[in-house]
Amino acid sequence: MTQLNFPDGFRWGAATAAYQIEGAATEDGRTPSIWDTFSHTPGKVRDGDTGDVACDHYHRSAEDVALLSGMGLNAYRLSVAWPRVQPGGRGPVNQVGLDFYRRLVDDLLGRDIEPWVTLYHWDLPQELEDAGGWPARDTAARFAEYAALTEAALGDRVKHWITLNEPWCSAMLGYGTGEHAPGHQDKVATLRAAHHLLLGHGLAVEAMRAQRPDSQYGITLNLHAFIPARDAPADAEAVRRLDGIGNRIFLDPLLRGEFPADLRADLAPVSDLAHIQDGDLATIAAPIDLLGLNYYSRNAVAAAKGEPHDPAIHSPWIGSERVRQISRGLPVTDMGWYVDPAGLTQQLLDVHRVCPDLPLYITENGAAYPDKPGPDGTVDDPDRVAYFDAHLRACHAALAAGVPLRGYFAWSLLDNFEWAHGYAKRFGLTYVDYATQERIPKTSAQWYGQVARANAIPAA
Ligand code: FCB
């Protein structure tokens, strides 16, 4: 395969999230988030792991910035922990918490690395959950207030803002299946949460843009790439259903200011959606400057046997719980996720079709593999190199087809706390020895650094 060049100015980054790496859970005024509560609840996270220490990034951020710089990356996507900068989720800022991010951002800028800040990567202050969490409308207003005060403090240095990371996970896994914090299983609450997350996004964009109109604001979604299991109308209908509750439930309000009519019908047995008030959809459709996509895999979908809706099943696919996702016989990562780079090209083309003028970024893409240090102390991870190579080629195919893809952030800079899987799944370009906190860049870090420096994928 030949060398593939990327456009000038392409962003080559890595991504992380606060709760997955920072640790220092009780330091300097930070209050608990729903993930502290959840991870400390027996049985919720594998091996009882918590983010109390994680990668100790709160105390080692300078070393971690040096890792990014060592790879020659020009961008870094981090998230701010809401309970660190506004403890309890309301009221004044916690200056010590903000200072941590200010130092981090200054370190990045000092090494010519552009900071991309996600405001919400799932760490809702526990006090706001106790007051109703995302199913409560007021949480949207609280989020916009937090976004505005964080932007006011860091916006002289940070020009790229992502409101929410993957609201699908926050709503559907947090309130639907209960696999993620806060661990509820309630379909109506899930639909309310999804809406209030979007409302919070719209209000936050409005508030931040009023403060600094020249910065760029967007959101990151984990859209689901689906293909029908067979070329049959019933399977196409199954794809329509999951595309509705998985993708268009977010895309249509954000990009068109509309709730999809077909999804409203699918959801009728569950909710009348009366929580969507007049004017909300217009707020949610506030113009954005970029859309972030997190891509990992693609699934094949087949028609339900019998009624698609089953109130007894706690599934993320509300209203379509019995639609089937079938096995595909492709190689899988350590997460059991299919390796399917063509799905990434498909997703970029599909999204570009619905918002042709919007710059797109891959804000996460990567793979878990269990590689550990060998006898010489190095960590060789050929599967991850192959995964990145194939997915970057898939990005390049989308660029060649005219998609305005402007950047790519590898998930993740470090092995880290992989939510309900604890520390058992390693997504890092850098190996982390959790006993000593030693960092060892893997072969993939060297490979990715070479790509970033050359602005090109080398010939294979
Ligand atoms: C995404 C999350 C990210 C990480 C990857 C593997 O859903 O945004 O924090 O856990 O999956």
UniProtKB/TrEMBL annotation:
Origin: domain of life: Bacteria
Catalytic activity: Hydrolysis of terminal, non-reducing beta-D-glucosyl residues with release of beta-D-glucose
PROSITE patterns: GLYCOSYL_HYDROL_F1_1 (PS00572), GLYCOSYL_HYDROL_F1_2 (PS00653)
PANTHER family in UniProt: GLYCOSYL HYDROLASE (PTHR10353), LP05116P (PTHR10353:SF36)
Keywords, comma-separated and alphabetical: Carbohydrate metabolism, Cellulose degradation, Glycosidase, Hydrolase, Polysaccharide degradation
SUPFAM superfamilies for the chain: (Trans)glycosidases
The organism's taxonomic lineage, starting at the top: Bacteria, Bacillati, Actinomycetota, Actinomycetes, Micromonosporales
Active-site residues, record numbering mapped to chain: E364 (nucleophile)
Protein name (database record): Beta-glucosidase
Membrane spanning residue stretches: none
Protein family according to the UniProt entry: Belongs to the glycosyl hydrolase 1 family.
